[in-house]
Design brief:
Largest sheet: 6 strands, mixed
Oligomer: single chain
Radius of gyration: 19 Å
Amino acid sequence: MKLVSRTEEDYNIKKEDPFLSVSPSGHFDRHPPIQDARRWVTSIGLSVQSQPKKQIRRKRDLPMHAIEVQHVSKKFKQQRVLEDIHFTIEPGEIVGIIGPSGTGKTTLIKLMLGMESLDTGQTKICDKLMPNFSVLAKVGYMAQADALYEELTGKENLAFFGNLYGLKKDVLQKRLDYVAQVTNLTKDLSKRVSGYSGGMKRRLSLAIALLHNPDILILDEPTVGVDPILRQGIWHELNEIRDQGKTIVVTTHAMDEASRCDKLVLLNHGRLIALGTAAEMMAQFDVHSIEEVFLAAGGEEE
């Protein structure tokens, strides 16, 4: 994960916040040292047994908007990456961010989370202006690049991150069982991550994002390298999570996955080209599939 130099005042960090460590140079690092990871893991004993019961979210517990992106622009050096992006995402939606490679999807995700600085505009999660580390406890984030401890087993990685999220031992055990089942990793949890295939590492990253039962999931290409049968199971579970009133944002190049989303954000050349359901987009571009929407939007901007 890219490290971003910030001061503690910029982020309003609480001293007891367990999620990030601060290096002497003032950078925030998602991963504490491996020695700390091993201490966490060896302090608990876990076995794989049961699946947790689903919890129903009450509407009055939900924020006004799950995510707000308000007139956001970003450039790197002289290259404009995103220009005046504006939309909201509501609780209980699966929203897909789609567009050609290099159009700013991953940058937009990082701006939502406060991981990159904005040139103009602002982003909010659960009605809180980002960046705000207290909000991140409600977010499960799966980055495009896997951020795992390869010296540890899959189970030790999950145990370590579960402890960072403050999960008690019995809750952690249930959540670990559940996410291992969803990602089909139960039989591989005792293996070192260094021996995992690329697809298995993606699944473990997804399991970590799901582990603390977050209100909001932000997943950057979550099913890359995952076989079609398991992809179906993952999407079934994402729908179940959405039906609990939670919010899911995914970036994807798979058009069959885009059609599963409740709403789509179509980007091209850093601009918001279209926003709406798959059916609305097909009507807007007068085509009969999401693939044709994708091609039509790209053709307009060339």
